[in-house]
Write a structure and sequence with these properties.
single chain, alpha/beta, Immunoglobulin-like, Collagenase (Catalytic Domain), 2 domains, 7-stranded mixed β-sheet, 4-stranded antiparallel β-sheet, 6 helices, elongated
Length: 371
């Protein structure tokens, strides 16, 4: 069969297949989000090495086997497709055996074998058999697992405590770790180390009150409008741990973080309300590991905040849940209706319309000195 292609502007990208998360709904540790934002690979961290690949990127913890889905865009549903790895010392294709042909759902499994510096590899989709022409590439990056210690605080404000317990926090941290696992970072939470932390003299019992937003009564431009937050994260601190404080409620936020580059007495730590979920916890932990802004911050400062699916799939989108638009692909980006995604960006695309890219690179660097 002959396929006619009309070239525009001296170039044409033909995309017969692409790659995406193997599941929809809640994050699963063995089904990482795929950074498929364009074909350019972007700027690369110094130890990643240069790659001729063009396509999506994904992260894997060393030794883990993960699922990824190949989607057929411009190719027949019956065409046999095989997945291969040209460097099995870095990444190997586990299923299907022999690389293919892929099953009808397009899901295949790859294993991160070892974390090498300057040794990039692309998993290749080949047409016909394992030696056929390459019709798609996925660049995985393998990261050795780092374990970061976390201590939780059950905070009472003027005698009114969070409704959370040490036991319920186990599930919360497990779900947050499912998001972080492909980045090669695990947050170690122990029930028995959970602290009870009372604070008093606050404006409202059970509530952390801040006046950061210009429309909040009491807001003073240029002033520290987060005194109660600062008080909480400087109370009963455990050294050499990430301190996460759980409060009943707050008037402006679901979560708030000072990263560990904010010196005391302002302090550094995380506050999370009872209404926050595991995505919010994972989001605040990424703030702690050196991502100060959000995916939808204006770029440049005069541009509109970003509201399309690309930004809403990112863990660092500002809102969870976000406002409904009535546009299907914006309102469900794979995690449920108006639920923020869990993509920790692997790519660093400085010319993107989104902000604060290269989150995984920065988080990995800060995880070497997290406390």
């Amino acid at each position: 069969m002959t396929i006619r292609v009309k070239i525009r502007h001296d170039r044409q990208i033909i995309c017969p297949v692409r790659f995406t998360r193997a599941v929809t709904g809640a994050p699963q540790a063995d089904a990482p989000e795929v950074d498929d934002r364009g074909f350019a690979m972007g700027a690369r961290q110094g130890t990643w090495g240069n790659s001729p690949a063009r396509g999506a990127m994904v992260s894997i913890a060393t030794g883990d086997t993960v699922r990824v889905r190949l989607l057929r865009e411009d190719i027949d549903a019956t065409a046999p497709i095989f997945m291969t790895s040209p460097d099995t010392a870095v990444v190997e294709v586990v299923e299907p055996v022999g690389g293919g042909p892929l099953p009808a759902d397009g899901v295949f499994k790859i294993r991160g074998v070892a974390d090498f510096a300057n040794r990039p590899v692309s998993v290749q989709a080949r047409l016909g058999d394992a030696h056929g022409p390459v019709i798609g590439e996925l660049e995985p990056h393998v990261f050795n697992l780092r374990v970061l210690r976390v201590v939780a605080h059950l905070v009472s404000i003027n005698g009114v405590s969070t409704a959370r317990t040490a036991a319920t926090l186990t599930t919360l941290f497990d779900e947050a770790n499912a998001i972080w696992r492909p980045a090669g970072i695990r947050f170690l939470y122990g029930q028995t180390q959970t602290r009870t932390t009372p604070v008093n003299g606050f404006s409202v019992a059970g509530q952390m009150t801040t006046t950061m937003n210009a429309g909040t009564p009491g807001h003073v431009p240029g002033a520290n409008n987060w005194n109660e937050f600062s008080t909480i994260i400087n109370t009963n601190v455990r050294a050499n741990y990430i301190n996460v404080y759980f409060v009943r409620q707050a008037n402006e936020i679901r979560g708030l973080t000072y990263a560990n580059d904010v010196a005391r007495p302002n302090g550094y730590g995380i506050v999370l309300v009872d209404g926050a979920d595991a995505n919010d916890l994972a989001h605040e932990l990424l703030h702690f590991l050196d991502t100060e802004g959000h995916a939808d911050d204006p770029v440049p400062a005069t541009a509109n905040a970003k509201v399309d699916m690309w930004a809403r799939r990112r863990l660092m989108y500002a809102f969870n849940p976000y406002g409904a638009s009535g546009i299907a692909h914006r309102d469900d980006v794979g995690y449920g209706n108006i639920a923020r995604g869990s993509l920790i960006t692997v790519k660093n695309t400085p010319n993107t319309v989104e902000a604060n890219d290269a989150e995984l690179e920065r988080a990995r660097a800060r995880s070497l000195n997290p406390y």
